[in-house]
Write a structure and sequence with these properties.
The complex is a heterodimer of chains A (221) and B (190).
Chain A lengths: L1 H9 L9 H7 L10 H46 L6 E2 L3 H12 L17 E11 L2 E10 L2 E9 L15 E6 L4 E7 L2 E7 L6 H4 L14
Antiparallel strand pairs in A: 1-2, 2-3, 3-4, 4-7, 5-6, 6-7
Chain B lengths: L6 H9 L3 H23 L2 H18 L9 H15 L8 H12 L5 H19 L3 H11 L5 H8 L3 H25 L6
The chains are: A alpha+beta (221), B mainly alpha (190).
Chain lengths: 221, 190
């Protein structure tokens, strides 16, 4: 009995502070108050995290393709130089190669390879191959520049490469080097490119596939 | 405009969005809502948050009030839900210290008796505050508002028997926790 008396005494009603109405007014009465609001925030936060995760995963995958492409390019180059691997298409015709690559890998070779060919002396197209890696179709265009074997790998991807990147017409690029190859990777549009040249002293020999005019002069385009 | 009138008239005014009706309804029930919040939370700041949340819920949901139960029961359910939804905040110890200092400084008072009284008060409040949320709200409805078992049962959506048994259980818990204090004062509550 003493407990009940004590509880009545201790828990007696009180008067509400005068500022309570002002606090309620500040909240723009009436507002839609709902116990589900935190749940909506949780759902939105969850969706946002999922979207970020998916985007991050895609970016990560896309970023990882440059090193993969470089390894692949080095293997291709080594095989071409030693003659241990063949090409799916042997041709010196740039248009034929462009069409074949578009058909097989859905890749647009938008570098001006029409300028290359026997008439340009130092650049000679050899042909093309299709490589599949992790479900990705990669076109490999083999050529010889300044008597050095080189290969250009092109794949369709939504993002750019990673590494020592810079900004130019190539949008983002990186320079690397292997044991017996000079590597140059970049992205343009929705495609990534990796060029491997057996000339390890300078990338010029490989770059002239695109950057060479009709008079044999190096150009920036 | 609604200045005075029956509860039903006020409710209908609120349902029509009349601001003055909201104000009158608030004035009628603010002490009740705040008292429950304060006795439940044991902290004035938290009680203000709970009371504010309760009235905001009331104003935003009053259009859905159809009078299936009494308005008072509906309001009690809102404040009970606000209390239970509110995360329990750390109890403030400073008021207890202030209270003790006031007693010690009060002229002509028997300091020892007042300290014992204060100790009992604080122990009771702490014991109530230490109860699980559902038991605490039960005690508050019963002893702050003096509600009957029937009224509590309607608010909490359970039977009279359940209310009685839960209260009985809570009483035993509180008695056990406070028994040492009562014994230490020689059985005479101050």
């Amino acid at each position: 009995m003493w407990l009940e008396t004590e509880l009545v005494h201790q828990l007696a009603p009180v008067t509400a502070p005068g500022c309570l109405w002002n606090r309620i007014q500040e909240q723009e009465v009436p507002r839609h108050s709902s116990s589900f609001r935190p749940a909506w925030w949780l759902v939105l936060a969850g969706l946002l995290m999922t979207v970020c995760g998916v985007i991050g995963w895609h970016i990560s995958r896309a970023s990882d393709r440059a090193p993969d492409m470089e390894k692949l390019a080095q293997r291709e180059l080594k095989g071409l130089a030693s003659g241990s691997i063949g090409l799916n298409l042997y041709s010196e015709n740039a248009t034929k190669i462009r069409t074949w690559v578009k058909t097989k890998a859905n890749v647009d070779i938008d570098v001006p390879i029409e300028r290359s060919g026997p008439m340009h002396g130092s650049v000679q197209l050899l042909g093309a191959s299709l490589i599949r890696q992790h479900g990705l179709a990669i076109a490999s265009v083999a050529y010889r520049a300044d008597n050095q074997v080189a290969t250009l790998l092109v794949a369709r991807t939504p993002s750019a490469s990673s590494g020592n990147t810079g900004i130019s017409k190539h949008l983002s690029w990186r320079i690397g080097s292997g044991k017996s190859a000079r590597l140059f990777s970049w992205s343009m549009g929705d495609q990534v490119y990796t060029l491997a040249s057996s000339d390890t002293s300078t990338p010029r020999g490989a770059c002239i596939l695109c950057h060479l005019d009709a008079h044999g002069q190096t150009i920036l385009n | 405009m609604v200045l005075e009138g029956s509860e039903q008239g006020l409710i209908e005014g609120c349902q029509r969005g009349e601001r003055e009706a909201f104000r009158v309804l608030f004035e009628r029930h603010k002490d009740k809502v705040y008292s429950i919040a304060l006795r439940y939370a044991g902290d004035g700041t938290v009680a203000m948050d709970i009371a504010q949340e309760t009235f905001l819920r009331l104003f935003s949901r009053i259009r859905s009030f159809r009078g299936d139960s009494s308005f008072e029961s509906w309001l009690y359910r809102l404040v009970v839900n606000s209390c239970l939804d509110h995360k329990r905040k750390a109890r403030r110890l400073m008021p207890l210290v202030d209270e003790l200092l006031d007693i010690l400084q009060a002229p002509g008072a028997s300091a020892m008796e007042d300290i014992m009284r204060s100790e009992l008060n604080s122990r009771v409040r702490l014991a109530v505050g230490a109860l699980p949320a559902k038991q605490r709200i039960l005690i508050v409805l019963r002893y702050t508002q003096g509600l009957s078992y029937d009224q509590i049962a309607e608010i909490l959506g359970c039977s009279n028997g359940t209310v009685a048994s839960r209260l009985n259980r809570v009483h035993k818990v509180l008695e056990r926790r406070l028994s040492s204090l009562v014994e230490s004062t020689g059985g005479n509550r101050v």
